[in-house]
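User: I'm curious whether this sequence folds into something compact or stays loose and floppy. Could you predict its structure so I can see for myself?
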Amino acid sequence: MEISTQAIKELRSKSGAGVMECRSALVVCEGDTEKALVILKEKGLLKAEKKSQRTTAQGLVEAYIHTGGRVGAMVELNCETDFVARTDEFKVLAHFLAMQVAALDPKYIAKEDIPADATDIDPQSACLLLQPFIKDPTKTVKDLIVETIARTGENIKVGRFARFELGA
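Assistant: Here's the prediction. I'll summarize afterward.
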């Protein structure tokens, strides 16, 4: 089947995957962009799972202060190399995560961080990774991180975060 350059470009802009990965996914799905997106997302999840045990000793700390200066957040985002930590894509991810923390006030990074005796906590709203992403509620924060892992080829983890609110 012949796959047009335009179809590959469109899929690449939606997924962030490489040209050949996009072409292969479109060939498998006979040109269906939506099915190809699903395949690429699954591949991204597999890549992220394989990288999840790799050490993340590099990264950066990003701060976000909401307009008016009443709420702010800081996030430590870790990756494997300083090369990736200096990329615009990594910096944008860190900024979005700081915005997420300021906006939705999570208490924990992941569901595993919730104490066993805290039975009245809703993991979806209390855990940063499970929250719907504020800029695209169809994705979770974890989905956003996994997509970035797939594009950068490195493991990425949230190290810690803090949220500050005036008078709280």
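Summary: The mean pLDDT is 87. Helices lie at 5-15, 19-28, 33-51, 82-85, 88-104, 123-126, 141-152.
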